[in-house]
Amino acid sequence: RTLDNQKNLYKLVGSIEGVSLPTTTAKYWDRIKSFQARPDDLLICSYPKAGSTWLQETVNMIQNADNLQKCAQAPIYKRMPFLDMFPPITFPSDLDNAEARPSPRSLKSHLPVHLLAPSFWEQKCKVIYIARNAKDTVVSYFHFHHMNKTLPHPGNWEEFLDKFLAGKVICGSWFDHVCGWWEAKKRHPILYLFYEDMKEDPIREMRKIAQFLGLEVREPVLNQILEHTQFETMKGNKMANYSNVSPCLMDHTVSPFLRKGEDGSWKGKTGRVNKKSDLTLSKCGREGSGLTFRTEL
């Protein structure tokens, strides 16, 4: 089959336990679910467009604080394979790359907590989760659907907003995702971070990450990492901005993978994102979990 024919398959949506996922992810679900984690694996997890690439780059630099140049030797998706993404069959999958990598491995997933491979819990792997408020997430996710040719067309803004708030998008309900992982941290070694906190004081959040990983990073190195992970720097970094991904998969002329990296981008949309997303955000507080979000700094 030609690549054009193949890529049309990846715009279709499958479903696993009621959660919408790309058909390729659903097709290889047995492999994803049976993935064998190792005790020293680190998993970076988030709902889509919550800052996972930013977090990955930050974590990878903290891990390589003694030689930051290692982070420039390969794209981020090679350094931290994305377990639940299967590209067209002419490309090796990240799952293949993950299985072939030596320990210790750093891996990425967008799966809700209940769909994660059980071996991660059995091996007591450390997880770093990053959450972003629903308003900014939905705006970023809408633009991402336009540039990512492996995703279904989002329709117009109003249509996509309704689907997002109903949990009828890839990776399912934002609310279920962020709340599920929040509850899981009571039982598992999970560092739960917030996008807005990283924007507000990135050095403080880097220290949290280093402490969680049992690493000591000197202040001058933290400042180097801060400079390297500034949004505009990452946007121009080919090892972090996905610009070396085939344009038949991601069209950066439509919208760059790293688009704005701002909080408060929802303000440019209609009032419905404010009113309806507030209802979704308010659910977190009503659950009595202590999980709250800021929509601007």
TrEMBL record:
Intracellular or extracellular location(s): Cytoplasm
Keyword Transferase assigned: yes
Domain Sulfotransferase: 39-267
Record bears the keyword Transferase: yes
EC number from the UniProt entry: 2.8.2.-
Name of one Pfam family that matches: Sulfotransfer_1
Gene3D superfamilies per record: P-loop containing nucleotide triphosphate hydrolases (3.40.50.300)
GO cellular component: cytoplasm
InterPro entries: P-loop_NTPase, Sulfotransferase_dom
Record GO terms (molecular function): sulfotransferase activity
Entry keyword set: Cytoplasm, Transferase
Family: Belongs to the sulfotransferase 1 family.
Name of the protein described by the UniProt record: Sulfotransferase
Name of the gene encoding the protein in the UniProt record: LOC113443522
